[in-house]
């Protein structure tokens, strides 16, 4: 490729040992991480405990709530099919996987759930990244299932290969969800929890109790705009990316993208791991004050010989 040696390296290991060794190496001055909350917390602690602490930009856990309002349920079959497709994509191992669906109680919500059950029964489990991840998925689903008041909506088929557990959707009402802390954490994989809410007040209570998230998605129609306006201030406090319609598993690399969010979705809520702003995680600002022009880096000289975009007292410029 012509790139310098070391631009890309891959070290393979089990557990946290390899990651901890890398974070502890004095040649490492900043760290990016995507993985479990336990792994992220271990690396953050290691980065802080060094003689010279280093930043660890950790992307950890999220359930990425999807809120369905009544107006979005007029055509339950296509909406449910899209939900199941997003939930099961890549064995459910996208960090933006829609693990929590907040669905209104009543006939419209029932029809959506019935359609989702039919779509999920046709889905087959896919091989997960590691045996440990597959085991954690199975244990997480069992943890949800053991909560009184949680019922199975549908289960797909286990895959034919090893470590390919069946996708599953479970459901409960809002009171059960808020009473059981074990329902609020992420189950990494193709497991969805549907929580039924009865009115806007109950929905707002559910959202207020959520941890920080990578995404929050609102499905609604024009008739729901008043409710949407009521929900948006809560959603923007909880998530780095707020979607109107669609599903959160598609992440575009672009100037506007924010792939981040409040703790514990990430340890660096002021930045993003995807998009133009992501590079700023690896930069440190330096100010040159009162230097002669010929001693400045070319990017800062008055003539701007490299014609880089610059912000000056008169606005943004590129030079001659």
TrEMBL record:
The keyword Oxidoreductase is assigned to this record: yes
GO terms assigned for molecular function: oxidoreductase activity, acting on the aldehyde or oxo group of donors, NAD or NADP as acceptor
Renumbered residue ranges of the record's region Disordered: 299-320
Oxidoreductase as UniProt keyword: yes
Listed InterPro entries: Ald_DH/histidinol_DH, Ald_DH_C, Ald_DH_N, Aldehyde_DH_dom, Aldehyde_DH_Superfamily
Organism in which the protein naturally occurs: Streptomyces anulatus (Streptomyces chrysomallus)
Record's keyword terms, sorted: Oxidoreductase
Polar residues biased stretches: 311-320
Protein name per its UniProtKB record: Aldehyde dehydrogenase family protein
Domain Aldehyde dehydrogenase: 2-229
One Pfam family hit: Aldedh
């Amino acid at each position: 490729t012509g790139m310098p040696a070391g631009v890309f390296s891959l070290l393979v290991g089990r557990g946290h040992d390899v990651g901890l060794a890398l974070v502890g190496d004095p040649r490492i001055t900043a760290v990016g991480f995507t993985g479990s909350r336990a792994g992220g917390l271990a690396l953050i602690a290691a980065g802080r405990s060094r003689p010279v602490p280093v930043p660890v930009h950790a992307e950890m856990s999220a359930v990425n709530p999807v809120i369905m309002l009544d107006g979005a349920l007029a055509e339950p079959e296509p909406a449910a099919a899209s939900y199941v497709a997003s939930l099961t994509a890549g064995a459910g191992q996208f960090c933006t996987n829609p693990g929590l669906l907040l669905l209104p109680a009543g006939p419209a919500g029932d029809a959506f759930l019935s359609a989702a059950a039919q779509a999920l029964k046709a889905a087959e489990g896919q091989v997960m990244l590691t045996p440990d991840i597959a085991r954690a998925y199975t244990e997480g689903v069992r943890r949800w299932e053991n909560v009184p008041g949680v019922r199975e909506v549908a289960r797909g088929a286990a895959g034919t290969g090893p470590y390919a557990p069946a996708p599953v959707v479970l459901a409960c009402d809002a009171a059960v969800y808020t009473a059981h802390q074990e329902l609020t954490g992420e189950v990494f994989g193709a497991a969805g929890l549907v929580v039924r809410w009865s009115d806007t007040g109950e929905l707002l209570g559910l959202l207020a109790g959520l941890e920080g998230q990578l995404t929050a998605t609102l499905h609604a129609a024009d008739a729901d705009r008043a409710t949407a306006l009521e929900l948006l201030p809560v959603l923007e406090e909880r998530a780095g990316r707020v979607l109107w319609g669609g599903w959160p598993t598609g992440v575009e690399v672009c100037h506007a993208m924010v792939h981040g969010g409040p703790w514990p979705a990430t340890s660096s809520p002021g930045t993003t791991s995807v998009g133009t702003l992501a590079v700023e995680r690896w930069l440190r600002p330096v100010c040159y004050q009162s230097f002669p022009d010929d001693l400045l880096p070319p990017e800062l000289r008055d003539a701007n010989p490299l014609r880089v975009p610059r912000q000056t007292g008169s606005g943004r410029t590129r030079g001659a």
